[in-house]
Design brief:
Oligomer: single chain
Number of helices: 18
Number of strands: 0
Distance between the termini: 15 Å
Radius of gyration: 22 Å
Shape: globular
Largest sheet: none
Helix content: 55-70%
């Protein structure tokens, strides 16, 4: 048999594939914690005279987002990003081999939402750690996160395997269930680059991926400075308030992914339809609330509520472009994710640079921050609209997965992919 459900199902929990998703989730928690810790710590770091800045001019504007870090610090952050870059495409490739067709949204959202949860935990924890005197405060946060990362690697290497067939402890019934409900792949199939580059659905994923990542990195990097410089919160309050939007985003992500897979399995919508709907909601609504954030003035309650609602609706995207690579080609999902993530991650320096260009003259000016929110909203909305018009949930001809199902396989399929 091939793609589709069988009369016998295997529960999501407890299961080996759930363990994979859970460990993936923990891994992404740590990956994002390593990314975001500097965003919180920098507020305290630049207040300490020994902290090295790039130049005398930079020291006068050290509170401008992003703070002007020393050259050595920039190199360290660059190397961290370089090595962390492989985590998303590598894990997405594993999902293509492990996750049944109608569990894609839920398992992908669960694992990848670890990044959202990492933001929550790290921003709250770093806010309090930076207020401590023990070991200087903010350096302790780097030691703790780095140490946890090294411990995690030991567990990952022991309990995770690239394919279900390689796992020595998987239940034979679960293995059979996975084999029956995942797309068969063609061994040693190379990626047809010309087809990928000219694929409109791939460009749709790229547009949505870049727009959403631009907003996320902008908020991740610059929200602490906005709350501190414009709304005048101290460092401990800063961390808790910065974490609130990501906490709501995490909850919405899990709920939407569950409903999405249930709707697909029940044939209430096609995969293409639900991906497009989720993508539009996940881009337009955050853009709307980002614009409102610019009009919040010094009303910190309204500002926090607007940003929280923006990130909550962004949770829809976990069941849109974030797992859409698995729809187009399970075999090459890791490479496809790597392509879009490489371009989208450029917003990691573009968003803070744009914020800095708007606010460099006065990082405490609310009107200047308003311009940054406008620009971020426009980029996100454009990506979402393009995705809504051109996204696809269909298995592509160039995917490298087997499309020649036998009659018995076709009859057992719950949805034509």
């Amino acid at each position: 048999m091939g793609v589709g459900t069988t009369n016998k199902t295997y529960p999501k929990w407890p299961s080996t594939r759930f363990t994979l998703a859970l460990l993936g989730w923990l891994g992404f928690v740590l990956v994002y914690a390593m990314r975001v810790n500097l965003s919180i710590a920098i507020v305290r770091m630049v207040q300490e005279p020994p902290f090295p800045v790039a130049s005398k001019q930079a020291s006068l504007k050290a509170d401008s987002p992003p703070a002007q870090l020393s050259e050595g610090t920039r190199y360290v952050r660059f190397l961290m990003g370089l090595f962390e870059a492989v985590t998303f495409p590598a894990f997405t490739a594993m999902l293509g081999r492990w996750v049944p067709v109608f569990e894609k949204s839920m398992f992908a959202a669960l694992a990848l939402s670890g990044g959202t949860f990492g933001n929550v935990v790290c921003q709250v924890a770093m806010g309090h750690i930076c207020s401590l005197e023990f070991m200087g405060g903010w350096p302790l946060g780097f030691y703790l996160i780095g140490g946890l990362g090294m411990v995690f690697v030991l567990y990952w290497n022991k309990y995770v395997f690239s394919t279900p067939q390689e796992h020595p402890r998987i239940d034979p019934l679960e293995l059979e269930f996975i084999k029956r409900n995942t797309q068969p792949v063609i061994a040693k199939s190379s990626l047809p680059w010309r087809s990928v580059v000219t694929s409109v659905p791939m460009w749709a994923i790229l547009a949505a991926h870049f727009g959403n990542t631009f907003v996320q990195y902008g908020l991740m990097t610059c929200l602490p400075q906005y709350l501190s410089h414009v709304l005048h919160f101290d460092i401990s309050q800063n961390g808790e308030l910065c974490a609130l939007p990501w906490a709501f985003c995490f909850v919405v992500t899990q709920l939407v992914s569950y409903v999405t897979d249930r709707m697909r399995e029940s044939k209430l919508v096609t995969t293409t339809q639900i991906r497009r709907i989720n993508g539009l909601i996940g881009a337009i609504m955050p853009a709307f609330f980002l614009v409102l954030t610019g009009y919040s003035g010094c009303n910190y309650i309204m500002a926090v509520v607007c940003v929280t609602l923006a990130m909550s609706f962004a949770g829809f995207l976990a069941s849109a472009y974030n797992c859409n690579h698995l729809d187009l080609s399970p075999q090459h999902a890791g490479t496809l994710f790597g392509i879009t993530n490489t371009v989208a991650t450029m917003s990691g320096f573009l968003a803070p640079t744009l914020a800095s260009s708007f606010t460099a003259s006065n990082p405490r000016d609310r009107v200047l921050w308003q311009k940054f929110f406008y620009a971020s909203a426009a980029i996100d909305a454009c990506g979402g609209i393009f995705y809504f018009l051109f996204a696809s949930g269909e298995l592509q001809n160039w995917s490298g997965s087997s499309l020649n199902l036998s009659p018995s396989r076709k009859a057992s399929s719950v949805e034509k992919i």
